[in-house]
């Protein structure tokens, strides 16, 4: 049973890492567009000066609290999502900080498509 659980946990963390990587491309897409929660995190990050990952964590915790007020269920996957997507987002943004933000709509659209595709794969893996 422990072996099965550890395998599921590893796959979950891998999927969350791919979701964090997708945020790299969403942030680099610039004005071409991104998902609503990522846009909110980008805005909070820009206004507050906190890192994008910290802003992502803040948004995730806010959504979790609203869900709990509606008597939603809170599981280990939800907690891991809030923590790890934020951490992986900051890690990938720091590792690939040399990649500039998209300077035109074509490269921005490519970044958006890559980001959304990675997010889809990460969600399927989870």
Give the secondary structure arrangement, pairings included:
Elements: H1 2-28, H2 36-48, H3 52-69, H4 76-95, H5 105-125
Helix pairs in contact: 1-4, 1-5, 2-3, 3-4
Short description:
With 126 residues, this protein is mainly α.
What does this protein structure show overall?
The protein is 79% helix and 0% strand. The longest helix is centred in the first third of the chain and has 27 residues, at 2-28. It has 5 helices and no strands. α1 (2-28) packs across α4, α1 packs antiparallel against α5 and α3 (52-69) runs antiparallel to α4. The protein is mainly alpha-helical and 126 residues long.
Order of helices and strands: HHHHH
Tell me roughly what share of residues is in helical segments: over 70%
Number of strands: 0
Separation, N- and C-terminal Cα atoms: 19 Å
Largest sheet: none
* Average pLDDT for all residues: 92
Q: What class would the helix/strand composition place it in?
A: mainly alpha
Strand content: under 5%
Number of helices: 5
Contiguous uncertain segments of 5+ residues: none
Radius of gyration, CA atoms, in whole angstroms? 15 Å
Shape: globular
Tags for this entry?
79% helix, mainly alpha, 126 residues
